[in-house]
Structure formats: C-alpha cells, structure tokens
C-alpha cells in the first residue's frame, strides 16, 4: 500500500501519518520532517533550505525529490509508504511516478484532507510537538492528557516550528493553492483520489482513512 496524504498546511497530514504508522506498520515519508532534520544537522541541503522554509516558500523540486528517492531506496519492499507533504508541485508529481516505478511500487490512493482555510491558521498557530519523540499536539484541540508531559514518551520538553506564525502560514496557503492543488486533477483522472472531511475530529478522520485503505 502506497498513499499520498494531500492537504494544505495544518490539514492533519502529520497527525494522521503517525496513526497509520502505528496501526498499519507503514512508513511516513515527510519531506518537511526530512528538511527540518537537515536544517538542524546543518547539512548542505539544510543550509540551502532554511531561509526558504522560514519564508513559507517551496524548496526546490530536485532537493525534496532526492530526499524521497533516498528514503525509498532504504525501505523494505513490503513496507507501505505514506507520502506526507510530497508531492507539492506538478514536477514533483511526475518525479514521484518515476521514483515509484524505479522502486517497484504503485500508488494506491491520494487521500485529500478537505479543510476550512480559516480553521487552519488556528490549527497551525496552536501546533507544538514533543522535543524528544516528535508527537504532535495542539494547545486546545489536542493537548497532552497531563499538561506539560508527553503522552507518548513522558518528556517535558516541547517545541514550536519557527514557520508556524500567521504571516508565514498565509504564504504557505498561497503556495498550496497555486502549486499543489493543481496536481489533483491528474490523480482524479486515474480514479485514485479519495476525499475525507478533515474538519472532523482526529479519531473520525483516522476512521475515514482506515475505511479507505481497508
Ligand atoms: P499538517 O501535517 O497537515 O500540517 P498536523 O497534523 O501537524 O497538520 O496538524 C496541525 C495541527 O492541528 C496540530 O497541532 C494537530 O494537533 C491539530 N490537528 C490535527 N488534526 C486535527 C483535527 N482533526 N481536529 C483538530 N485539530 C487537529
Ligand atoms: P505543513 O506541515 O505545514 O504542511 P511541512 O512540514 O510539510 O509543512 O513543510 C514545511 C516547509 O518545508 C514548507 O513550507 C516548505 O518550505 C518545505 N517543504 C516541505 N515539503 C516540501 C516539498 N515537497 N516541496 C517543496 N518544499 C517543501
Ligand atoms: Zn514524546
């Protein structure tokens, strides 16, 4: 099973990917996470990407596609892939087709998380994660059960992304509308797009995705 989770920033792609990993033993391939790791490690890719990410713009197709190629090469053939935040442009969508082919995989579904844009700013400005294990939280919609303690690992250290501010979010939404949404019709023509109401609760969204992938 290979799926793309598609939706604007804050739609819930990372949250749902984590559940798919846990429930179905799939692997999450998040170009955003890979880029943040590269920035942290100050690799050449990270040094190049940082300013672009801070501005909310898109990193080059080549850089993110190389990251995905390397991850696919390192994966077990029978572990399913969840593409989270990739592809984001028509060029990336074409490259992904080639990469899947190269690595002997086929795309089963493109799951579009449909969300109301006004809610996204609230979701993103309230987003934080565990500094130790990366578990995702939200100030009001999804706080840890015990305040200040990670449900998953017990850590008391949390962090927020530098690009999760209102101004950058607006740019990221525009990038999504202008460059990412236009890749949907191509997948629609292949009959593999499934839509899920991303405004439902986290559990309801998970159930809807589970019923699609079976
Ligand atoms: P994405 O990866 O698409 O940018 P995230 O999964 O990081 O989105 O979710 C963005 C924020 O919204 C997080 O703080 C997360 O806890 C919260 N969130 C995710 N799904 C929902 C939902 N269905 N309802 C309310 N809040 C949600
Ligand atoms: P979100 O959770 O808000 O959808 P991501 O974590 O996926 O955001 O991405 C954060 C930033 O990393 C993006 O704003 C962009 O600068 C860069 N990025 C991530 N994935 C891609 C990609 N596939 N193509 C280009 N840039 C990307
Ligand atoms: Zn944790």
Helical fraction: 40-55%
Distinct helical segment count: 9
Strand order of the largest sheet: 2-3-1-4-8
Percentage of residues in strands: 15-25%
Mean residue pLDDT: 97
Bound molecules: adenosine-5'-diphosphate, zinc ion
Structural class: alpha/beta
The separation of the N and C termini measures 10 Å
Total DSSP E strands: 8
Contiguous runs where pLDDT drops below 50 for at least 5 residues = none
Globally, the shape reads: globular
In short:
The chain has 9 helices and 8 strands. The protein has 214 residues and is α/β, with parallel strands linked by helices. Residues 130, 132-133, 135, 150, 152-153, 155 line the site of zinc ion.
Please explain how this structure is put together.
By secondary structure, the chain is α/β, with parallel strands linked by helices. The protein is 48% helix and 15% strand. It has helices spanning 13-24, 31-40, 44-55, 61-74, 90-102, 117-125, 166-180, 184-189, 202-213, and strands at residues 2-6, 27-30, 81-84, 109-114, 127-130, 136-138, 158-159, 193-197. α1 crosses α9. The model has no long low-confidence stretch (mean pLDDT 97). Bound molecules: adenosine-5'-diphosphate (2 copies) and zinc ion. One adenosine-5'-diphosphate binds next to α1, β6 and α9.
């Amino acid at each position: 099973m290979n799926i793309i989770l598609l939706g604007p920033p804050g739609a819930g792609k990372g949250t749902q990917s984590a559940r798919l990993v846990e429930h179905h033993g799939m692997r999450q391939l998040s170009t955003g996470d890979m880029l943040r790791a590269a920035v942290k490690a100050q690799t050449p890719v990270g040094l190049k990407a940082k300013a672009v990410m801070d501005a909310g713009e898109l990193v080059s197709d080549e850089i993110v596609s190389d990251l995905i190629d390397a991850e696919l090469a390192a994966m077990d053939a029978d572990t399913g892939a969840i593409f989270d935040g990739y592809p984001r442009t028509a060029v990336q969508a074409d490259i992904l087709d080639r990469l899947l082919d190269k690595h002997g995989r086929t795309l089963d579904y493109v799951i579009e998380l449909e969300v109301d844009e006004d809610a996204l700013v609230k979701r993103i400005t309230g987003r934080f994660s565990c500094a130790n294990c990366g578990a995702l939280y939200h100030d009001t919609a999804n706080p840890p059960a015990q305040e200040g303690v990670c449900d998953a690992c017990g850590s008391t250290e949390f962090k927020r992304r530098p690009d999760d501010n209102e101004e950058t979010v607006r740019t990221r939404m525009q990038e999504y509308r202008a460059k990412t949404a236009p890749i949907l019709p191509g997948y629609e023509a292949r009959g593999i797009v499934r839509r899920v109401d991303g405004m439902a609760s986290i559990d309801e969204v998970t159930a809807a995705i589970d019923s699609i992938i079976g």
